[in-house]
Amino acid sequence: MFSHEAPQTLNTATNSEPHRRTRSDHASETAEDYVEAVADILAQQETCRVKDLAERFAVSHVTVNRIVDRLQKNGLLRTQPYRPITLTRKGSRLAAQCKERHEIVYQFLLSLGIDEATAAIDAEGIEHHVSPATLRRFKEVTAGRKL
């Protein structure tokens, strides 16, 4: 049950690293979701507008405008007031990387027998937090499956 021994000294640097990485992953999550969404919308229709992103993420136009402004400052998107949103070269590369990472995680979850709807939902969260080493292993495990 409970031990009355003194707790062992923990290596703070080692124990804080996963938390530091998770915070960093969360910081880039919105940017990744938005550039991936812009790429998807542009692949489906000619233009991507604030209203398209607001509908996709079920958020207000104000929220989308703030995020688009930040992503524009980060060199991922281009737009002007009342004009469509486009991806920069940097944004296009990030969107392609995100799409590939999402598909690898999704296919891995399917290989475990997870149903498609659940795998799609879970992949959306996992894709932002999976390390490159784990992602490579997911890809190896699902080799031969449609990626």
Structure report:
The protein has 147 residues and is mainly alpha-helical. The chain is built from six helices and two strands. The chain has a two-stranded antiparallel ribbon with strand order 1-2. Helix 1 crosses helix 4, helix 2 packs across helix 3 and helix 4 crosses helix 6. The N terminus is likely disordered.
CATH superfamily: Winged helix-like DNA-binding domain superfamily/Winged helix DNA-binding domain
Instruction: Tell me the series of helices and strands, N- to C-terminal.
Output: HHHEEHHH
CATH fold name? Arc Repressor Mutant, subunit A
Largest sheet: 2 strands, antiparallel
Strand elements, count: 2
Spatial order of the strands in the main sheet?
1-2
By DSSP (H or I, 4+ residues per run), the number of helices equals 6
Overall pLDDT confidence: 85
How much of the residues is beta strand, in percent? under 5%
Shape: elongated
Q: Radius of gyration, Cα only, in angstroms?
A: 19 Å
Helix amount, in percent? Answer: 55-70%
What's the helix and strand layout?
Layout: H1 12-44, H2 50-57, H3 61-73, E1 77-78, E2 86-87, H4 89-111, H5 116-126, H6 132-141
Antiparallel strand pairs: 1-2
Quick tags:
147 residues, mainly alpha, Arc Repressor Mutant, subunit A, two-stranded antiparallel ribbon, 67% helix, elongated
